[in-house]
Design brief:
heterodimer, A: alpha+beta, Rubrerythrin, domain 2, three-stranded antiparallel sheet, 29% strand, B: FAD/NAD(P)-binding domain, 16 helices, 27 strands, 29% helix
């Protein structure tokens, strides 16, 4: 499965997680343990 | 099995597959395909004359391929009904008849080459899923040379070799030279407790199976030397420790360590292993005549089909998930469906019989009552508001809705509803009301919590089964979490409508948390996947409106994770402190504007 960058909305850490379009999976931030893991989209990066 | 076959109230359908199950508790319609056996099973006396003349030889599945069977055969000696069947995939052909020897030989004229598969339909009140398990296939493990070395066998093959009805008539011989081995090694946990193979669970039965195997071996051949390589022996259960002791007393040596590799000596076909004995803390080398791989248990290959038939959910190890691990261990999440045996988790015969008895009793309790009591927290549909988009049928984990957008019809079976409320959260037209957790009730709770000092509060939506119970565990354990967090209970996180979150922000909440069960614990099969989808969409929306998505958090907290609940809430409180007054004012302004825009849009649509 492809891996993509995800950002933890609680601690801000960016980690790679498996990703497949349309497939839901539980992700947990290895740093703070939060499940608020958001896919880093290209648009978001450009904005920064 | 004989008793089952003879019982007047039990209809036994062997060599059949369940094709379709529709309906709900008390009203299941089951469609079964009874495959053609090409032998009249009521007339067949299992004399065996037909099989003797059959010219086709194929590997015998029951004997693990160690011997052969004919194309007309009995699958295994204890099969009920005890009648032959023709394996049409291997038969020389019946159209036109290429051989026909079995039909010529059968005096009772039981062979019927024109037999066809039958589709049978039944109405049943409850369903018990007892579909069993498969064993791990060790061909993927190159290190043990199962595909290269004939003298490396699995515990299933060993079982057949030692059986009086087995391919060698109970004479224990090694495959390469047909001689009795002098030394036999057993390797435990092959395909169990292995993260690498995706089998992290303990298969439950292998330790005791090996102990029994070694006792049988020592009983038949006391001179054979047996060694067992293990991670740890799990001999829990009545009488099991005693068996383990007896095995050791019989001379079986137990070595704590798993060999990394098996290497064959090509001249003798003996097998060499290197192992670190962790009790002696040294590397040792052993040579065996035969090695037995104690293979683990895996979910059956056709589990996805059964899962789909009955809308069941699975645990991460691939077995079926029960409604509750402690309080409803034999119930499926779908009412009226029960589990027995290894379909639910690996277990031995005793546990399977116990569970099967429990499942039968649960089914009988339901059937004898004749009525099913439903929880009051089901959904109700207002067909006047419904636009027949079909979203409810898409999200309902129990298939309670059937929507036909073309005919503009909606069928809702309340008996199937478990009350997760996901339908209500996804319905864009407000046509679904979740009883006792209505939109108005939840909005009122938000308003009340944020009526005073809203900027100091955190709204936490917590699911009844996990997060809310996790908060209880946290409190019960006297763990501290900030008192400004306001919990709003819903049956499932799937109930948390987008508008609840936005309303909380509009009312000045600095942070909103949506929390529910971990994926594997979801009490409504997969309803919390919809929660995640919704929250992910909301993050995008908030960002579009220039509201920090970090102010909306998604947290999976189980009932046992009181400590995690406290830690999460403490972290969130730190984040809340960073939310500025200006940010909240901006959010309120933007959301009020958006709401007005939405209202205007609706008005325009109404006028049209």
């Amino acid at each position: 499965m492809e891996e993509k960058d995800f950002k933890c909305l609680r601690c801000g850490a960016v980690n790679k997680f498996p990703y497949e379009k349309g497939v839901m999976m539980e992700r947990q931030c290895p740093k703070c343990g939060s499940n608020s893991i958001r896919l880093v989209k290209e648009k978001q990066e450009e904005k920064k | 099995m004989m008793d089952v076959g003879r019982h007047p109230n039990i209809k036994l359908l062997t060599y059949s597959t369940v094709e379709k199950i529709t309906g709900y508790v008390g009203n299941f319609q089951v469609q079964v395909k009874k495959k053609a056996k090409y032998v009249n099973e009521t007339e067949c006396t299992a004399c065996g004359d037909c099989t003797e003349v059959c010219p086709v030889f194929v590997p015998d599945e029951f004997q693990q391929g160690l011997s052969s069977r004919r194309a007309i055969y009995i699958p295994f000696p204890q099969a009920v009904p005890s009648s032959f069947l023709i394996d049409m995939e291997n038969c020389l052909g019946t159209n036109p008849i290429a051989c026909g020897k079995c039909a010529d030989k059968c005096d009772k004229k039981c062979i019927d080459y024109d037999a066809r598969d039958e589709i049978l339909e039944f109405k049943v009140g409850t369903v018990i899923v007892a579909t069993g398990m498969d064993v791990f296939d060790p061909t993927v493990l190159d290190e043990y040379g199962y595909t290269k070395y004939e003298n490396v066998i699995t515990s299933m093959e060993y079982e057949r070799l030692l059986s009086a009805g087995g391919p060698s008539d109970g004479h224990f011989i090694r495959p390469t030279d047909r001689k009795r081995p002098k030394t036999v090694g057993f390797i435990q946990c092959v395909g169990s407790r292995c993260e690498k193979l995706g089998k992290p669970y303990c298969s439950n039965i292998c330790c005791m199976n090996t102990i029994k195997d070694t006792l049988l071996l020592k009983d038949h051949y006391p001179d054979i030397e047996a060694k067992v390589f293990y991670i740890d022996i799990r001999a829990f259960g009545k009488g099991f420790e005693d068996l383990y002791k007896r095995s050791k007393e019989a001379g079986v040596q137990y070595i704590r360590g798993i060999p990394g590799e098996i290497i064959e000596d090509p001249s003798t076909h003996n097998l060499k292993v290197m192992v670190e004995d962790t009790t002696a803390n040294k590397m040792e080398e052993y040579e065996f005549d035969m090695m037995v791989l104690s293979v683990g248990v895996t979910p059956r290959f056709d589990m996805p089909e059964v899962q789909q038939l009955l809308t069941l959910s699975k645990t991460p190890d691939g077995f079926f998930m029960e409604a509750h691990p402690k309080l409803k261990p034999v119930d499926a999440p779908t009412t009226g469906v029960y589990f027995a045996g290894c379909a639910e988790a690996p277990k031995d015969v005793k546990d399977s019989v116990t569970q099967a008895s429990a499942a039968a009793a649960r089914a009988e309790t339901l059937l004898s009552a004749g009525k099913v009591k439903l929880e009051a927290i089901t959904s109700s549909v207002n067909t006047d508001l419904c636009r027949f988009c079909g979203m409810c049928s898409k999200v309902c984990p129990y298939n309670a809705f059937t929507v036909d957008p073309k005919k503009k019809t909606i069928r809702y079976v309340e008996a199937l509803c478990k009350g997760c409320g996901t339908c209500g959260a996804e319905c864009r037209f407000g046509a679904i009301t979740m009883n006792h957790f209505t939109d108005e009730q939840i909005i009122t709770q938000i308003d009340t919590h944020l009526a005073e000092k809203a900027q100091e509060k955190v709204i936490v939506f917590a699911c009844n089964w996990c997060s809310y119970a996790g908060a209880d565990t946290c409190g019960g354990a006297r763990l501290q979490y900030p008192p400004n967090q306001r919990l709003i209970r819903t049956m499932c996180s799937g109930r948390v409508h987008e508008k609840f979150v936005l309303h909380a922000f509009k009312k000045g909440a600095p942070m909103v948390v949506v929390s529910g069960c971990h994926y594997v614990d979801c009490h409504y099969i997969d309803a919390n996947r919809w929660t995640q989808k919704r929250v992910e969409k909301l993050w995008d929306k908030l960002e579009k409106w220039d509201i920090r998505p970090e102010r909306l958090l998604l947290e999976w907290i189980s009932a046992a994770e009181g400590k995690r609940f406290a830690k999460t809430m403490q972290d969130i409180e730190e984040l809340r402190k960073k939310v500025t007054k200006e940010e909240i004012e901006h959010t309120v302004k933007v959301l009020t504007e958006e709401e007005e825009k939405e209202k205007a849009k609706k008005e325009k649509q109404k006028k049209k």
